[in-house]
């Protein structure tokens, strides 16, 4: 969508790819140092060697240092760090370990509704049991402990709930959970013996000034040793989001806490079959966790670029929320973090009927029409899960502000037209005069 | 008491949650008063299929090798000054140099400002521009289509057509993958179904590259072993395939046949006739063919030539080429590039049912896309500098140097190993490994067995402890009962390889004597 990469990151990767550039005067010293450090820990000093299956050692150490700093001194052991091929890879590997049992003893995995559909896909593929817990739309998609409890108790009748997945900041919902909420979730996990998977890939994408990212690990630590030494927790991060947006590099890591040592051996064995995550992605992750420091030459430019990306994202998040909320029949919760808006849309009964007649979800019908009529591609809420009888779509806030305004304008027009088209028994205006009517009464974007 | 503990006690006292704690593991109070308790995820509660997975190439012997390396770096005295990891097909780790052109293009793609840098040749720049043009936002940082960047798939298709003397290739049949391993596992996933005696069986060569056995274990598919013939340079015998198949039919539903050509660990390059026979066999017995051809550029013996399964299939006429389901796998990790760390690969899917293909596309979409640098690299592998282009000469020089060094080392390895009494090495016709047969004295076999160890693991561990040389025991790949082997790569630089081989020779003689 046109977001520019962070210069420093790409310089380091280029230096690693083609070390002859270490002689080039057009690269800053700090980038060269990072590249040299990475290459030092690569076989034959080459990005082309397989790394250890857990990842390049110095990068894992840097990840641990980053986490320790992020969590204000809560220590992170680099032996608990695994570099992964994007966060998806780590999530799949952990879920794989957890799935066992037959019939009513089959592993149940609690996932938020709405959720990022990697989870439902993985659960299906592994033939684990889906356990849906609903986020509270009326409360800005907050996690409600009673809802967790309800889902858990219901599930216990037909499976063995073992895993609790949380995405914070949320995808598609964009909420940033409060510290209190995270505490309650961890307490729940402790009480009910659940393995916690904390998807924190959007930890750098927090826009609302009322919100702050609290890492699950830090909250767990602050709850005291009884929790910190016992709750099995894996946290996932990625190079794909944040302010770097390096999706194509497939970089990621997971920090694994309190895993049984015998299971750890199994995990490493499992990872070894695929040899290692892409080393270029590992290098990208290294830069993210080990960015230029204040005294370093690239610091100023790096900070400028990072702020610029994050400021623009925050601006676009607010813009999107505001415009969507100005549309009758669309209600959008604040986009507190992540990269998406997940507005609720009112779909008239006639449209619902037509969708049913065509064997598709009503929000799919809506989104297909939107695509055909405006060229805008968004994903229907049914792809993420939602409360029965509600409809949503997920759109990213990633296009440039100018393009986003145009997009949102078209969306608004489309929605109004859609409402009109499906609200009456027979349309009172022909489609062309409906269009003319809209053109004449277009509000300012 | 800290806040968290207070919370805990308070909640325990008041919460109705306590009522649901039936069935929770017992708590134990340790000495400092902090209770410890059983974990959710233990060796008993974890996925049983994962426990069955073994992968010798990075298994126990390699872990011991890493330990020794650490001990050496801490100044501990050993009978050797360095650990030589001849266990894994990682060329760069053993000092092989990357192809300059490839790394230039990758650097240009990573940091397009370099397109203004006069030290980069024009052909590298134009390749980079073409790749970037096909990337979202002109950036390698964008997710590509799940099947892979379209222009790269087109280039792969053209490469295959050139390689196969014009046999047409449809870019839509090409899927870029995260190394070949990713593609292999994905296809196996599609194939595995059924219960009990109807469970999918997959035929794999013995010896094999243990990705296959690992994947089959994880998927709970039935592994069907067919033995390569060591006496005839690891050739495939159709009668042996038939034997394995008929036997397997009694307890599973054989559906797929995996071949690695050139072979890993065995290094044989199958003859054209053999490949034809295999295809005929697969057609007759209705088996889905998986052709692992990642070593297609690693052919050393003058008497051998790489014949792609696809080409042979098409040469056999429409009766076969329209019906036999075949997937061929390739990778950026081997050949003359050795770019393992980039995790580049592709697979070509031939005659797959359309509905299944849609499922395949859906399955790969969940993981979004393969790493874009790896895709870019694959593009260069299939679309290298051409005659007349500025980088051509250097490219050819580097490629030739690497391949001829490998050929030399293949010959050297075979020669030296065959001078050792008790070691017998088949010609290393291709790939990157030698897989010699070793005679292990009865006394050693007994000691190994008493220790619960495979005899060749016992041998290799001793070799490691005494010489620092890390090889992988044949038991990690499979072998005929009562025979023992090890796999070593031919990748170390020639002088190091010579030293290595002589140390192996000395060790073997000493070992044989020690246990006679």
UniProtKB/TrEMBL annotation, chain A:
Residues 436-445 have a biased composition (Basic and acidic residues). One of its GO terms (biological process) is L-alanine catabolic process. Pfam families: Aminotran_1_2. GO terms for molecular function: L-alanine:2-oxoglutarate aminotransferase activity; pyridoxal phosphate binding. Its cofactor is pyridoxal 5'-phosphate. The keyword Calcium does not apply. GO terms for cellular component: cytoplasm. Keywords: Aminotransferase, Pyridoxal phosphate, Transferase. It catalyses: L-alanine + 2-oxoglutarate = pyruvate + L-glutamate. Residues 424-445 are annotated as: Disordered. It is an enzyme of class 2 (transferase). The keyword Repeat does not apply. Belongs to the class-I pyridoxal-phosphate-dependent aminotransferase family. Alanine aminotransferase subfamily. Homodimer. This is alanine transaminase. The lineage of its organism: Eukaryota, Metazoa, Chordata, Craniata, Vertebrata.
From TrEMBL, chain B:
The keyword Transferase applies. InterPro entries: ALAT1/2-like, Aminotransferase_I/II_large, PyrdxlP-dep_Trfase, PyrdxlP-dep_Trfase_major, PyrdxlP-dep_Trfase_small. Its EC number is 2.6.1.2. It holds the Pfam family Aminotran_1_2. Its cofactor is pyridoxal 5'-phosphate. One of its GO terms (molecular function) is pyridoxal phosphate binding. The keyword Mitochondrion does not apply. Pathway: Amino-acid degradation; L-alanine degradation via transaminase pathway; pyruvate from L-alanine: step 1/1. It catalyses: L-alanine + 2-oxoglutarate = pyruvate + L-glutamate. One of its GO terms (biological process) is L-alanine catabolic process. It comes from the Eukaryota. Residues 121-502 form the Aminotransferase class I/classII large domain. Keywords: Aminotransferase, Pyridoxal phosphate, Transferase. Homodimer. Belongs to the class-I pyridoxal-phosphate-dependent aminotransferase family. Alanine aminotransferase subfamily. This is alanine transaminase. The lineage of its organism: Eukaryota, Metazoa, Chordata, Craniata, Vertebrata. The gene is gpt.
